[in-house]
Amino acid sequence: MDLQIKGRVALITGAAGGIGLATAKLLSEEGVRLVLSDKDADKLQASCAGIGGDALLLTADITDQSAVDDLVKQAEAKFGAVDIVVHTAGVTGAKGEPLELSDADYQEAWDTDFFSAVRIARATIPSMRERSWGRFVCITSENAVQPYWEEAVYNVAKAGLAAFIKNLSYKEAGFGVLCNTVAPAFIETGMTDSMMEQRAQQMGVSFEEAVESFLEEERPGIVQKRRGQPEEVAAAIALLVSGRASFINGSNVRVDGGSVKAIQN
Questions:
Q1: Is the dihedral of CA 154, 126, 172, 32 positive or negative?
Q2: Can you tell me whether residue 154 is helix, strand or coil?
Q3: What is the DSSP string of 7-43?
Q4: Are 35 and 75 in contact (CB under 8 A)?
Q5: Residue 154 appears among annotated catalytic residues
């Protein structure tokens, strides 16, 4: 199916791995011109070496508005405009008893997982409005609606992000800019690899046994009994940023294998 975005320009954050990289590869196949950003220059270069097309690779500190502004200016200097934003960069942050976590713990997740999206929106959406076309997609999480007690800093930041994008969607659609979120759960990325390595060490079991026990004990809603693949999330993102998704706005698309058991988003 033609997604009707050939020649469009997409800025993807967190592009050095996981969902960001999978999305970059898929959009490249659709003829999208790519601006790929991550904080690790070496990893970004190595990961994106095989992506076709004339991709622009840039490092940026998304916790700094001036750095985000400069990132977008470099993208515009090369391609003229940014039509699509796919914001996947984020951190899990500190874990533990919510009242024992420090202000700095909460601030780290807030700056990276929530406020970075505000900064990127400031830098990109005004130009999309002028051209009467744009797509702005952020990665939230199952945690935004199904929080886990020990992940308070992540829960709060992702819930805030979901609310912010919903807020944006009300006004921006009038300018042709559609804003949505994608909420994955337990995807096979470096983030969940780290979680499972830590679990395996704590339990004294293999990595595979840690994954199996986590699915059984912590994510019973995932009846397929496996981690999702980044490509499965990328497919949903590709639809949302496409010309085909012209009436999808303010939505939260779950790609969670059924992990969230509620009907509501």
A1: negative
A2: helix
A3: T-EEEEESTTSHHHHHHHHHHHHTT-EEEEEES-HHH
A4: yes
A5: yes
Tell me the sheet residues that pair with 59: 38
Q: Which of 2, 50, 5, 11 is nearest to 34 (CA)?
A: 11
Strand order in the sheet with 9-13: 56-59, 33-38, 9-13, 84-87, 134-139, 177-184, 252-255
Locate 77 and state its tokens. Answer: 């200097």
Calpha distance 29→27 (Å, rounded): 5
From CA 51, how far away is CA 30, in angstroms rounded?
12
Q: Which of 19, 50, 16 is nearest to 36 (CA)?
A: 16
Tokens of 65: 């508005």
Nearest to 89 by CA among 69, 114, 71: 114
Encoded tokens for 256: 């969670």
Q: DSSP letters along 81-127, please?
A: ---EEEE--------S-TTTS-HHHHHHHIIIIIIHHHHHHHHHHHH
Residue type, 248: I
Q: DSSP label at 228? A: B
CB atoms within 10 A of CB 24: 27
Record the tokens describing residue 15, joined without a space: 């592009």
Does the reported pTM lie above 0.85? Answer: yes
SS3 state of residue 184: strand
Predicted confidence at residue 243, as pLDDT, reads 97
Distance of alpha carbon 18 from alpha carbon 255, whole angstroms: 14
Give per-residue pLDDT as tens, 87-142. 999 999 999 999 999 999 999 999 999 999 999 999 999 999 999 999 999 999 99
Structure-token match 């050939």, residue found: 6
